[in-house]
Amino acid sequence: MLIGGNKEKVIANMRSAAERGDLNCKVETDDPVLSQEERERIVRHYLDNYRTIGYRFCNVCARALTDTATRWLNRSTRIEGMENIKDIHGGAIVTSNHFSPLDNTAVRKAMNRAGYRRLFIVSQETNLAMKGWIGFLMNHEDIIPLVHHSEYMRKYFGPMIRERLKRGDAVLIYPEQEMWFHYRKPRPPKRGAYYYAAVNHVPVISCFVEIRDLPKKENEEFHQTRYVMHILKPIYPDPDKSVRETSREMMRLDYQQKAAAYEQAYGKKLTYDFETDDIAGWISPEEA
After folding, report:
1. The pTM of the whole model exceeds 0.85
2. pLDDT at 21 over 90
3. Which of 130, 209, 225, 257: disulfide with 232, CB 3.0–4.6 Å?
């Protein structure tokens, strides 16, 4: 299932960003654009609403919708490597490549199978401004908004993650930051996910989603696809190193694992030279 309309401009943005080596930049064209005042307002509203009875009711409804969508969207998703995390019992940071608004459902399926009842997802605050059913889910599902403001990060964001980890939940943080639509390759990570794993003394559950093309068309731009979720070796913080040192080492190991998983899945060396096949399912103008 694809979300959004024509992706020609988005793919052009990805090609341009890959060519200049800017692999964590925003490439989507329809994301909400908010002023600083609007960002602060929607986050204040979220925080005010977060512990109300109304929010809890909507949260139950949103989780039920998400669970149903997860089962439907991933009915053909295969999960490999569950044995790698059989000894993890308790809070964990989950990392995965980010290529679709719906890729978190593949992660959710895997984490449910691993015994986690809830998967919390770190999401940029602009997603709270989305409309329709996606907006409802963003505002009432198990979301932890990310706001690049030092007071918010210290006073709210860090404690929210700590609370979920202490309760034994899984927290999904996309270390690539921005979503690149149907992009097969793992991109170099940023350090945030590994910092929160190190400072909270929890493991990183390292995931890589392989995207396989199917013969049937989804629309005139894309073939249908299915996922293979690869659960890689978990990465544990080193108690003898500083948070900075151990988070950097965890980040390096996670990227190394994801790169190796890509190369094994697709049978090619990971480079960031742009190719048509980098975009899963894409029917390029040359092929059309």
Report:
1. yes
2. yes
3. 257
